[in-house]
Each structure stands twice: as C-alpha cells, then as structure tokens.
Design a protein that fits this description.
The structure holds 2 protein chains of 2 kinds. Chain A has helices spanning 69-75, 112-121, 145-150, 170-174, 188-197, and strands at residues 2-15, 18-24, 36-39, 48-51, 54-56, 59-65, 82-89, 103-107, 131-136, 154-159, 166-167, 182-185, 202-205, 221-223, 229-231, 238-240. Chain A is α/β, with parallel strands linked by helices. The longest helix of chain B is centred in the last third of the chain and has 18 residues, at 309-326. Chain B is 31% helix and 20% strand. By secondary structure, chain B is α/β, with parallel strands linked by helices. In chain B, the strands form 5 sheets. A 7-stranded parallel beta sheet of chain B has the order 6-18-17-12-11-10-9, with helices on one face. In chain B, strands 7-8-16-13 form a 4-stranded antiparallel beta sheet, with no helix packed on it. Chain B has 10 helices and 18 strands. Classes of the chains: A alpha/beta, B alpha/beta. The interface between A and B is medium-sized, with 25 and 36 residues. Bound molecules: flavin-adenine dinucleotide, flavin mononucleotide and FE2/S2 (inorganic) cluster. The site of flavin mononucleotide (FMN) has 26 residues of chain B, from strand 16.
Chain lengths: 247, 343
C-alpha cells in the first residue's frame, strides 16, 4: 500500500450515471488486476473504495457510478484536481487459475476490474479463448463494450430490459457457455444467480463498507466456509468460490 | 532582540524551534518517548502499520480489544460514515486471549520493541479477570487497559461502564490479578462520567483512559433501514473531540489518576488540547483508519513542529493553564505528567 497524490487528467461521463476518471501519479503499488484504491474526498471522513479499471506506469483509470454524496462530488472534480489516494489495496485476481478458456462476468459497477483482468489475461492466453459477459439494466448504461471488443475477446451483453443483447441477466448468457474457470464482480443478486448455475470453480470479487481499506479496523470481515474470517479489504476483495460461505 | 524560550528562538518574524523538543511523558512508571498512543481497535496488533512506518516511534499502542474466547464479531455492514466521523459495530472481533498471547505477542516482538498496552474486554466480571490473568507474566505488556463499554451478560446487557458499582467490581477483580498497572477505559455513554471515574479510583485503578465511542446510529434513506447491521454502533472521529475534551477535563478535576485522553484526536494541536484538558498521554483512534500515517505525522509534527506558534505556545503555557483550570479542583496526580523541553 502507498499513500499518493494523484492529479485528475480527465473525468467524463461515459454512460448513464457512469464516469471514467483518469489519474496521473505513482501506480507502482498496483500489481494485480482486481486490486482497488481508496480515495480521500474533501468533506468526507471515510475514503471511497474504487477498483482499478486500467493502469499503466504513472496513469490509472477508474470507472465509477454516482450513487451517493461522495461519488456525486467526484463527478464535479475538474481535471488538475489533486486527490490523496491509497493505492495497491487488496489481493486481486489469480490469473494462474484461468485454465485455457475462462469467462469473465461483470455486472454494472462490477465491470471495471474485469477490464484490467481481461488485459492481463490476453498477455497469457489468446483473446479468442476469453469470453466476457457484461450485464446492464438497459442500453443507456452500457460502457466499455468497444474497449473489450478492441481486445479481441468474445464479448456478450445482457440487459435486464432487453434493449441490447440478450434480454435478462448475465446468467442467461452464461448458462450456454463452455468455460474452464470464471471470474466475476458485481452485485450480490448476480453472485447468487451465478453460484446457482456455475459449472466450474471461479473467483468472486466482493464489496463491503470499509473503515480503513487496509486491514486495521475489522470493519469488513467475512465469515468463510471453514469458519475462519477474512477481511474483504486485505485477504480479499477476491475470494475463491470454494472458500465462500453463502448465507 | 531574540528571546529564547523553551528551545524556541523568538524574534520579530516569529519563533523558530532551535532544539529538538523533549516530548516524553511518564505513564505510570514507564517513560513514553511521546504522548501519542494509537487507540485500541484502530491499530490491530500493529502488523498493518509496521509495513508503512517504523512503529517504534510511537509512545506505545493499545492492541485490539482481547476477550477470553475468540470472537467473530457482528454481521456486516459494520461501518457507517457521519459528518466528520464514523460509526463502527465491529463487535470486538479478536482471536481470543490465548492466540493473542501465544501468536500475536511473539510476532509483535519482532517489530515493536516497546511495552505495549493490552486492551481487554469481557462480558462478565470473571471473564475480565481470567483474560488479564492469562496475560500476566508477559514482559512485552506495559499496562492493562480495561474496556468497560461491553454489555454485562449477567446484568441484563447493561454496559459495565455505565454503572459505578459494576465499574468498581471489574476494577477490583482485575487489580487482584494484574501484574502491570491497570488503566480503566471509560464509556462516555453516561450522565456523569466523574461518578464512574471515582468508582474506578475506589476500586484501585492506576489510571483511566477516556473516551470510548459514543453510541450512535445512521439510517439509509434508500432502504429506510439502519446502515449498520447491528442497528447502533460506536461513534468516533474528529466530531467527538469536544465531548472527549469536556469529559477528560471533568475527570481530571475529580480524581487523582493519570489520564489517557482520546476521542477525535487527529492532529498535534488536538494532542496539546487534550493535554491542556488534563491528559498525560493521548490516544489516536479513527484518524489512523482514514490516514494510515496519522500517528506518525502527529509525532513528526510535535518533534519538529516548524512555525506552528499555536502548538508551541500551548506547550509552553501548559503548566500555567492547568493551574488556572484547577484552581477550584482536586490536586493533580504528581509525577505522572510532564511535558518538558530539552535545554
Ligand atoms: C473493493 C471495492 C471496489 C469498488 N469498486 C467500484 C468501482 O470500480 N466502481 C464503482 O462505481 N463503485 C465501486 N465500489 C463501490 C463504491 O465504493 C461505492 O459506490 C461508493 O463508496 C459510494 O460512495 P457514496 O459517497 O457515493 O455513497 P454513500 O452511500 O453516500 O456512502 C456512504 C458510505 O457508505 C460507503 N458505501 C456506499 N456504498 C458502498 C458500496 N457499494 N461498497 C462499499 N462501500 C459503500 C461509502 O464508501 C461511504 O463510506 C467498490 C467498492 C468496494 C468495496
Ligand atoms: C473500528 C474501531 C474499533 C474499536 N475497537 C475498540 C476495542 O476493541 N477496544 C476499545 O477499548 N476501544 C475500541 N475502540 C474505541 C477507540 O479505541 C477510541 O476509544 C474511540 O474510537 C475514540 O477515539 P477516536 O475518536 O480517535 O476514534 C474502537 C474504535 C474504532 C473506530
Ligand atoms: S476496512 Fe478496515 S479492515 Fe477492512
């Protein structure tokens, strides 16, 4: 973990209520897709955890939905604004588990970490062996479809109202796919639906309300299947299917 | 013309610090290099912070509230935000006293070379006693800090720290077995904190620490339900500083015990303010969570302190102020408080 001052390079609306923020600063602590950063915002006591969507040396991209006061404030931050950010938090996805044709499943605000994961996977697998399933409520909310397509992977979209792609949920696409492993991030109902039909092992990336984001407060503990606990911010946010206790 | 005052050289342009200030304080017979003590529950067992900075710069720290049995704690969400603060309902998640003694303490020895403060909790008087007993004989422990904000399972769930008789009972039980000074940690969720402080003093407490968190809650407007799964939780952070200061001041003027003042401290100025209210040493809690380097920054600021007249003046004036404050009140604990400057 590192505390860093980042400078906003751009902050733009890319879909309904969805923003892409590009930040410049030291990204050396971000070592795995699926890790997150914790952002200090003026006027708010707690930081806001956001997944890293994409990163290269000195630059990182975040995608966030405006869902409350903190993320609303973020939408108003102009390029040039400096932000105090804790970087390199959490464990991230394990690429070595993918097998030769994994599927990546992202729902709404859970899609951003899937992008960096996808980029990392195409460096070890050929793109056509990677399937990506993206779930949205409606066509206006769709983002990063082109960016995923540009990676050369097989991208499918499901919208709840049927305005684009398959009508229904990601699982309506997933059920007909063949894959060696799955990686997913998204809302809890989506996780439950995936858990009910998934044919292989996989990794889920969880969200929890956080007091610190680096393991100090025990605010984010999760009971695991073996009765132990893990911290979403430290041992997580990514957990293996088999270790999760579904309640 | 230059006026040299407590290590500061003052001229027409203001004052500049010329010598390293001696910020050491004596806490019940152990000298702390500085009065800054990360508060229990916000510093774990030190592991998360030791990778960020050398935590041996701290006065000491108080480790995570430890109970007789291991505890998973409350369901999540355990955290809510408030203006200038936060609410937590972690529920004393800890691996239990045996694991703390046999695993955490030996691990801690590798990276923390000062006496640590052992924070203990319980849900019955004998639980407190057994927990402390199991931690006796540990050289690494310098003090016991006994958290009495927990519900008494044999007393209808009423917190020990809200009933003077119970607070005294816990103090006596712990004092009977403890091989280190016992610092009772008071709950602010009472009408008159001085009553509880007096009860702990009567029970034989060696020191007091205050305040623990204030009971609070938040409601999510979207779901119309409490944000925290446990409904209520402990409110802490900058927002509670004035309440904490007031209580430290009241207790300082009532009992003759050294006090660790805490609640909302996030800067060197807050530390000084706490000491002016009567604290011997100062706990830093939630600030460590929002800024992992908070305690380090506070200590750094106190040690080098550049140009901050306000802080230095407060330091220099401290003895005068405490005299002014205590005109009508009890004699302060002797020898336990000193904030000196090297010559
Ligand atoms: C590891 C992790 C990665 C995340 N990645 C992304 C991402 O890439 N894009 C994105 O849009 N969102 C992401 N989120 C969710 C994001 O953190 C919340 O939407 C955001 O904190 C809401 O803040 P707010 O002030 O707008 O909402 P408010 O409801 O006003 O926030 C109040 C408090 O609750 C917390 N909170 C509210 N919702 C959540 C939530 N879902 N998860 C955790 N804390 C929450 C806030 O941080 C704040 O402390 C992630 C969350 C986690 C835990
Ligand atoms: C997440 C969290 C966990 C805490 N856990 C404990 C604990 O285990 N034992 C204890 O005595 N106090 C505990 N506290 C209380 C703090 O030690 C401190 O008394 C209180 O938070 C006030 O200080 P602050 O405003 O600086 O946070 C906890 C506080 C927080 C925020
Ligand atoms: S948020 Fe503090 S331990 Fe995870």
């Amino acid at each position: 973990m590192k505390e860093e001052i980042f400078k906003i390079n751009s902050n733009v609306l890319i879909a309904e209520n969805t923003y892409e923020m590009e930040l410049l600063g030291d990204t050396s602590e971000i070592v795995r897709p699926g890790q997150f950063v914790n952002i200090k915002l003026d006027g708010f006591f707690l930081r806001r955890p956001i997944s890293v969507c994409d990163t290269e040396e000195g630059r990182m991209t975040l995608i966030y939905k405006a869902v409350g006061e903190g993320t609303e404030l973020m939408t108003k931050l102009a390029p040039g604004t400096r932000l105090n950010i804790l970087t390199g938090l959490g464990n991230g996805f394990d690429l070595s588990l993918s097998g030769d044709h994994p599927v990546l499943i992202g729902g709404g605000a859970g899609i951003p970490p899937m992008y960096s994961l996808c980029k990392a996977l195409i460096s070890v697998l050929s793109p056509e062996n990677i399937k990506v399933v993206l779930g949205f409520n409606t066509e206006e909310e769709i983002f990063y479809l082109r960016e995923f397509q540009d990676l050369g992977v097989d991208v499918r979209v499901a919208t709840a109202d049927g305005s684009y792609g398959t009508k229904g949920f990601v699982t309506d696409v997933l059920k007909d796919l063949d894959y060696t492993f799955f990686y997913t991030c998204g809302p809890m109902p989506m996780f439950r639906a995936i858990e009910a039909i998934a044919k292989t092992s996989g990794q889920y990336s969880f969200e929890e309300r956080m007091g610190c984001g680096f393991g100090a407060c025990m605010g984010c503990s999760m009971m695991m299947a073996d009765g132990s606990y893990k911290r979403v911010c430290k041992e997580g946010p990514v957990f293996r299917r088999e270790e999760i206790l579904w309640k | 013309m230059e006026i040299v005052k407590g290590g500061m050289v003052c001229g027409p342009e203001g004052c500049v610090l010329k010598t390293e200030p001696d910020t050491s304080v004596d806490l019940l017979g152990i000298e702390l290099d500085n009065p800054v003590i990360p508060a229990s529950g916000t510093f774990g067992f030190g592991k998360e912070f030791k990778d960020l900075y050398d935590i041996n710069i701290l006065g000491t720290f108080s480790f995570k509230g430890t109970t007789l049995e291991p505890r998973f704690g409350n369901p999540t969400p355990r955290i809510a935000e408030t203006p200038n603060g936060m609410i937590n309902a972690v529920g004393l998640q800890n691996p239990g006293v045996i694991a703390v003694r046999d695993r955490e303490l030996p691990e801690m020895k590798e990276f923390f070379h000062k006496p640590v403060m052992a924070n203990v909790s319980g849900f019955a008087v004998d639980e407190y006693q057994k927990t402390v007993e199991l931690l006796c004989g540990q050289d690494q422990i310098g003090w016991f800090e006994v958290n009495i904000s927990c519900p008494n399972v044999h007393g209808g769930g009423m917190a020990f720290g809200t009933d003077p008789a119970m607070a005294q009972k816990v103090t006596e039980a712990v004092k009977k077995v403890a091989d280190k000074p016992v610092i009772m940690k008071l709950s602010p969720n009472v009408t008159d904190i001085t009553e509880i402080a007096k009860a702990c003093e009567a029970g034989g407490a060696d020191g007091l620490s205050l305040i623990n968190t204030l009971l609070g809650m938040r409601i999510d407007l979207k779901t119309k339900k409490p944000v925290i799964a446990n409904t209520m939780g402990g409110f802490s952070g900058s927002a509670i500083l004035p309440v904490a200061l007031r209580m430290v001041y009241q207790v300082y003027n009532t009992v003759n015990l050294p006090i660790i003042g805490m609640g909302g401290v996030s800067s060197a100025k807050d530390v000084i303010e706490m000491m002016l209210a009567g604290a011997t040493a100062v706990g830093v809690g939630a600030a460590n969570l929002t800024d992992p380097f908070a305690s380090k920054k506070i200590i750094g600021f106190m040690a080098t302190g550049r140009q901050n007249m306000c802080v230095f003046q407060a330091l220099l004036d401290r003895s005068d102020s405490s005299e002014r404050f205590t005109e009508s009140s009890a004699v302060r604990a002797t020898g336990s408080v000193s904030l000196r400057w090297a010559s």
